[in-house]
């Protein structure tokens, strides 16, 4: 019998939104229950805003019109049923960590929500940190390598 591994992670919106649009492995592992996104309202609202912005800029040219509401519905489903929601938001007096203050709510969510990993494509701010309070920060490919070592089957 194989064990089911559920890993709580913070997924930066620069990974999550394209993953949902393109139905990538990140999305598949969320829907299987292996990845449990650690969310705050800030992260969810940013995901919705970026979804609509990316749709307007590039995805609507490549996809069917009904895929935008389907994508938003999928994000809402992930938020409400598959993740670990955090009831609070990052306090305004939380000390800056990243060079981009907009990234700090993701770091705060990882710390507060006891995430085991932070997945991001943000090379200028998030990935350069390497980790936050011992929580590794890496790309999706690095996450999948890490999870094989941290949670062997």
How would you briefly describe this protein structure?
With 153 residues, this protein is an alpha/beta fold.
Structural features, described:
The chain has 153 residues and is α/β, with parallel strands linked by helices. It has a single domain, classed as 3-Layer(aba) Sandwich (Rossmann fold), CATH 3.40.50.1010. 52% of the residues lie in helices and 14% in strands. The chain has a six-stranded mixed beta sheet with strand order 3-2-1-4-6-5, with helices on both faces. A hairpin with a 2-residue loop joins strand 5 and strand 6. Helix 1 packs across helix 3 and helix 3 runs antiparallel to helix 4. The longest helix is centred in the middle third of the chain and has 22 residues.
CATH superfamily assignment? 5'-nuclease
Low-confidence stretches: none
Number of domains: 1
Text of the CATH class: Alpha Beta
In whole angstroms, the N-to-C terminal distance is 10 Å
Percent of residues in beta strands? 5-15%
Strand order of the largest sheet: 3-2-1-4-6-5
Beta strands, count: 6
Report the structural category. Answer: alpha/beta
Helix content: 40-55%
Indicate the CATH topology: Rossmann fold
* Total helical segments: 7
Average pLDDT works out at: 89
CATH architecture descriptor name: 3-Layer(aba) Sandwich
- Taking all Cα atoms into account, the compactness measure Rg is 15 Å
Sequence of secondary-structure elements: EHHEHHEHEHEEH
> Overall 3D geometry?
globular
Main pleated-sheet profile: 6 strands, mixed
